[in-house]
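tool_call: predict_structure(chain=1)
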Amino acid sequence: MLHTLIRYCTVAFALGFAVAACTADGGRQAPVAVMPASFGLYFLDEGPSAKLAYGQANSDNVGLMLECAKGSRLVKVTDVVRSSPAATLVLASSGKTSQLKTAVEPGPGASIFTASAPAATPALIGFRNSGKMDVSYAGLRYAIAAKPNERMGIEKFFAACDGART
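tool_result:
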């Protein structure tokens, strides 16, 4: 069985993460980005703004970044382009899916998707409540699952966006 799965799996490494596409029968499946085990969620209070980064601690190796001006109730979402650019970034959490129109901007290395959404967007509310979210675009997807010690950072981020003191 394992040799059959290996035969139908492909893995590519780029930008410090793996992309795998596997099926048991050889059919096509959307590639799944396997983020490094060292990735986590980190809340950053930057005075007038707040950020929630999904990446490696104390580094620029970041996958998804949520940012807002405190009290604005508007979240800027950025992500590194790991496959071909797409016009839509899809966030899903707790059975709710939100499609965000993107712009692609050149970054210092790879290009970056940017999108904006109200903090009350269904997938963001689901993420705030569950600590889990799937991110997808251009046929690529990955999952974020907050560790118990990271859940407070998620709440601090959304509270800051809502205008509550953090």
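agent: The longest helix spans residues 151-162. Proceeding to next step.
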